[in-house]
Design goal:
The protein is mostly helical. It is built from nine helices and no strands.
Length: about 170
């Protein structure tokens, strides 16, 4: 059993019927892909023709960041937000597909670009399972004021004014 699966198993609250095995697989794939994309970007930076690999480096780093963020968001369950999770998963899947396409352009010349598309495909494959499950989880519970027909603090809170550091009032 992976550490991810063990942490999901020992979570003290109900996870709302989510497929823990699929969620664990997706989190692990995201972490592995983030590491591989970071390593691939670093390897690209050490190539003699680094100027030709700028887009590949950028795409790898973007994919690594999104995979890392997705793994962390999928690992948090307290105060769960299905819309945020869904959007994060979709962004991660898009980044993985884009990164795989970019690396495929360089795989004939760079072994490190050949090594990671399988991982990105793994994230792309595993992300839909939790994504599908996410759609069926219940929405955020209403604030007690909303239940009573009054606006909640979330609905009445006004954004803080933006201070202009050049105006005399902000000094």
């Amino acid at each position: 059993m992976s550490t991810t699966a063990e942490m999901l198993r020992t979570y003290p609250k109900d996870l709302g019927g989510i497929d823990q095995e699929a969620l664990s697989t997706c989190i692990d794939a995201c972490v592995e892909c983030a590491q591989a994309c970071t390593a691939c970007a670093d390897a690209c930076l050490s190539e003699d023709m680094v100027a030709d690999l700028i887009k590949c480096i950028r795409t790898n780093l973007d994919c690594a960041d999104l995979c890392d963020a997705t793994a962390r968001i999928l690992s948090r369950h307290t105060g769960y937000d299905a819309n945020l999770t869904r959007a994060t998963l979709e962004a991660c899947r898009t980044a993985c597909a884009s990164c795989a396409s970019e690396c495929e352009l360089h795989e004939d010349m760079h072994e490190h670009c050949r090594s990671v598309p399988t991982l990105r495909a793994s994230v792309h494959r595993t992300a839909p399972s939790p994504l599908t499950t996410v759609r069926h989880l219940r929405p955020r519970p209403k604030h007690r004021n909303e239940k009573e027909g009054r606006p909640s603090c979330r609905q009445t809170r006004k954004p803080a004014p933006i201070r202009d550091s050049t105006s005399p009032a902000s000094r």
